[in-house]
Amino acid sequence: MTCMTAAQSTSPADRPQLSLRERKKIKTREAIRRATYELVREQGYDATTIDQIAERAEVSPSTVFRYFPTKEDIVLTDEYDPLLLEELRARPADEPWPDSVRHMLREAVRTGVEEDAEVARLRTRLMVEVPAVRSRMMQSMSVTGRVLCSAIGERTGRDPGGLEVRVTAMALVGALMETTLYWAENGHRDDFPDLVDRALEVLQRGLPRLDS
Q1: CB atoms within 10 A of CB 56
Q2: How many whole angstroms separate alpha carbon 107 and alpha carbon 19?
Q3: pLDDT tens digits, residue range 133-157?
Q4: 13 falls in which pLDDT band (50, 70, 90)?
Q5: What pLDDT, on a 0 to 100 scale, did the predictor assign at position 64?
Q6: What pTM value is reported for the model?
Q7: In this model, does residue 78 exceed pLDDT 70?
Q8: Which of 54, 74, 73 lies closest to 62, judged by CA?
Q9: Nearest residue to 93 (alpha-carbon basis) of 33, 185, 156
């Protein structure tokens, strides 16, 4: 999920323990991301090369490409899309599905910003300023859209591949993408979860009328 992370609905003790191999993979991915963010802050995105990232992260360039197909993916990729469905499943069964989805997305973006506000601002600023990052973001958001299709289908009993579900999911994805860009374009002044809530309100209730 390119512009947010998902709030975890179970405690670490409740989760299966990761294997040593999985822990090493996560550590490597984090090292590559950390190196990228450091270099981008120091010299800008365009000047940062894969070779520099690899050297800073103490891995080979081929390792960087094995984890992230493009430099843009380092900025955009996270591990949290699968947790969206988990978070939705944790909501009360009798809760209206729009309320469940709204809670899930609001908590996801709040967690993402609170975990590392500086990185969240850097990532979203690059989405606005770097055309290649913005283009890749639009491609990667389709992955989040498919996750939302599964979540909505499971919650409503509808076919996840049905037109209505797909339109609903991609409307949510579009709202999140535009809210992310709006937040960055306006200097990150507003509270991002509040902006997401405003966007979801528009989707649910329609465009509010202007005061006469």
Answers
A1: 17
A2: 28
A3: 999 888 888 888 888 898 888 888 8
A4: very low
A5: 96
A6: 0.78
A7: no
A8: 54
A9: 156
Give the whole-angstrom CA distance, residue 108 versus residue 188. Answer: 17
Which amino acid, 96? P
Six-digit token pair at 146?
């498919």
* Contact between residue 2 and residue 141 where contact means Cβ atoms under 8 Å apart: yes
Question: SS in 3 state form for the chain?
Answer: CCCCCCCCCCCHHHCCCCCHHHHHHHHHHHHHHHHHHHHHHHHCCCCCCHHHHHHHHCCCHHHHHHHCCCHHHHHHCCCCHHHHHHHHHCCCCCCCHHHHHHHHHHHHHHHHHHHCHHHHHHHHHHHHHCHHHHHHHHHHHHHHHHHHHHHHHHHHCCCCCCHHHHHHHHHHHHHHHHHHHHHHHCCCCCCHHHHHHHHHHHHHHCCCCCCC
Q: How many CA atoms lie within 13 A of 76 on its CB side?
A: 26
- Residues 79 and 82: their CA atoms lie apart, in Å, by 7
The more confident residue out of 79 and 45 is 45
Does pLDDT of 29 surpass 50? yes
Q: What is the dihedral of CA 98, 140, 197, 183, to 10 degrees?
A: -170
Query: pLDDT band for position 8 (50/70/90)?
Result: very low
Residue 37, token pair as written in the block: 């963010």
